[in-house]
Amino acid sequence: MQILNREFCEILKAKVLDYCNPLLPIDFVRSDRYLKRSFYDDTFYSGRYPELLNHALNHAIMCRIDEVSINEIFDYLN
Fold this sequence. Notes:
The protein is mainly α. 65% of the residues lie in helices and 0% in strands.
């Protein structure tokens, strides 16, 4: 299907860098650790970075598929 190729990876990387701006991704992860440490009573906090990656992944995939192939891609990813 050639959906998860080099172009997809470059789009995903650009989106992650854009969403983390002005921080670098490693600094974004570090800030998540500080938040977890500050609110140690909250046991359900998974961080902002996983949500950011999920959002970037959705945007990177959605610009590469069309309505015809959406069911096939859904089956492939799940």
